[in-house]
Amino acid sequence: MMKISQSNNPYINANTSLQENSSVQNNENRKELENNDSEKANTNDELSPEQKKQVEELKQIERKVEAHEQAHKSVGGQFAGSMSYSYTQGPDGRRYKTGGEVSISIPSDDDPQKLIAQLMQVKRAALAPSDPSPQDIKVAGMVDGKLQVARAKLREAYNQENRETEQESRLDLKL
Predict the structure, then answer these.
(1) Facing residues of 3 across strands?
(2) Contact 114/30 with Cβ under 8 angstroms?
(3) pLDDT at residue 157, rounded to an integer
(4) For 28-34, what is the mean pLDDT?
(5) Please, are residues 106 and 112 in contact by the beta-carbon 8 Å criterion?
(6) How far is CA 59 from its chain centroid?
């Protein structure tokens, strides 16, 4: 899921996340949790068939979350920050990634053409996963609104340039 918020600074911040039954862990605890996972994990032989099924579902969710967030990050390119995840503990004692987020910052720019290119990259990043969330789609729509404004500014600059060129041509013809 991707969220966009704009503050008074010259950056548009976008956060992507896929949330499923878990709380977000901060980056400082992430390494500790990952290190503890191997120590806490029980062997699959000690689990009931229901617990084994739950572990397989958590593994599948984890693969989807990782792919989803990696898609946002890869397409976000130079504007993408680090990925962070939220975890759910499985019956085997291991913590599985069940949600995540990638921050994306786009510098604002007075050059409408450059801004359009940056916004297009944000939109592609929002829609990059094979299964964009409703929030990802909402962000893409918000970016579309910003793109319309930037395109209008570009058209206005182009029209102004054409008017000036036309006036210069008329002056040359009068001579």
Answers:
(1) 15
(2) no
(3) 87
(4) 48
(5) no
(6) 22
φ and ψ at 103, to 5 degrees? -85, 145
Q: Where are the domains of the chain?
A: 2-174
Closest CA to 16 of 146, 149, 131: 131
Task: Outline where the chain has alpha helix (H).
Answer: 27-40, 49-76, 112-126, 134-174
pLDDT, tens digit, for every residue of 108-145?
A: 778 889 999 999 999 999 999 999 988 889 888 988 99
Rounded to whole angstroms, how far apart are CA atoms 83 and 72?
9
Give bridge partners of residue 88 from the DSSP assignment: 96
In this predicted structure, the answer to whether residue 31 has a pLDDT above a threshold of 60 is no
Map tokens 């929030």 to a residue.
Answer: 135
Return the higher-pLDDT residue of 110 and 70.
Answer: 70
Question: Within 10 Å of residue 146's Cβ, how many Cβ atoms?
Answer: 20
Q: How far is CA 128 from the centre of its chain?
A: 9
CA distance 96 to 60: 10
**Which tokens is 174 given?**
């009068």
- Measured distance CA(106)–CA(93) in Å, rounded: 39
Greater confidence, 42 or 72? 72
